Amino acid sequence: MQAIKEIHDVVNDPITYARRLQEQSGKKIIGYMCTYAPEEIIHAAGAHPLRLFGSSKNILLADGHLQTYCCSLVRGVLEDALAGDLKFLDGMIFPHTCDTVQRLSDIWRLNVPYGFHLDVVLPVKLDTKSAADYMVDVLNLFRNDLEKSLQVRITDDDIRKSIVLYNEIRSGLEKVHELNKNNPGIINGKDLSALVRAAMIMDRNDYWKILQNVIAELENKGVIAKATKARRLIISGGLCSQPDIYHVIEDAGGVVVGDDLCTGSRYYQGRIKTTGDPVAAIAERYLQRPVCPAKHMDKNARATNLVKIARDSKADGVIFMLLKFCDPHAFDYPYLNEALAADSIPSLLLEVEDQPQAQSQLKTRIEAFLETLS
Ligand code: SF4
Ligand code: SF4
User: Is the pTM of this model over 0.85?
Assistant: First the structure.
C-alpha cells in the first residue's frame, strides 16, 4: 500500500516532516505531548499541532534537569529540545496531566529559549459540574492566550470547521479499527499503529485524504483467512512507542484486535458536537471520552472501559505495555488486572522504555503468554 509507505516515512522522522511543512506552508508549528491538548483550537488558529513522541537518542542533556526515574518519554522530548532539534517549534503547550509533565513544563519554560510556552491547566477530576464549567473556562483562556501568542483571531466558525475535520479523522480511524477487529490482520499492527500516530503529526487535511484511501483499500480486501486462528489481543497502556512489538505478537501467533492506548482508542474515541458553543463542545468530549490515569472519574471507569474493549473485541488476552517510571499507569495496573481476572481475561505485564530495546526478551515473554492462551 503506497499510502502506508508514506505514513511510515512521516512517523519514522516526524521532525523532518514538520520542518518541511513549516517551510512549504508557512504554518506555525505547535508542539504538544498528550491527548488532552486541544488540537482543534490550535488547528483553528491556522497553526499545525505536532505531537512529540520522545527521542531515540541516548539521554544526556535531559539528565541534568530530570531524575533518571522520570519516564523516558518526557526525558526524550526534553533531550531533543535541549539539543536544539525542536528549535523550529513556534510554541509548546502543556496540558495539566501527570506530575512529570507538569515539572517538564516548568523546566521547559526556564531552559528552552525558543517558541512560546503555554500551560493548559485542565481540571483533574472530570465528573463534577464545577469541573465541566472550569474546563470550558480553561479552554477559553487557552484560546485567548493562543490568539495573543500567534497574533491571530480565532472565530467560533474557525473552530467548528476544525471540529468537523477532526470528527472525520477520528471516525475514519475508528472505522479502520472496526475493519481490523472484524477481519483481524486486514492491516498489520505496525501499519495500524503508524496510521494513528501520523494523525497527530501530518497536516490534517493531507492526512484525511490518505486515511480515506486506506479505508477504501481495506474495504476492497477480502477476508484474511490465516488470522482467524490467531490469538486475539488487546494492548493497554499510555502510548505505544514499540511498533516492532506488533511483529513480535504476529510472529508468535497473535493479532492485536483492539487497544486502550493514547496512541490508539483514547485518541480517536468521542466526537465533538458541531452545533452550539464549539469550545464547550470540545470540553464535553474530554469529559465523556475514556479517561486516562492522570485524570479522575468514577473509580471503576478505566476498568469498566478495558473489560468492555476486551469483551467487544472477543479478546483472548490483554497485554499491558507500561513505560518504565510512568506512575499513573503503574498505579492503575493492579486494579485493572484484577478487573480482567474477575472476568477471566488473562493478561501479561510488559515494562518498556521509549528508546529502542532488545526484542528478544519481549519475544520470549509474549510467546510464553500466547502458549498459555492456547
Ligand atoms: S496517559 Fe494521559 S497524561 Fe499521558 S499522554 Fe495519555 S492522555 Fe496524556
Ligand atoms: S503519563 Fe506516564 S508516560 Fe505519559 S508523560 Fe506522564 S509519566 Fe510519562
Answer: yes
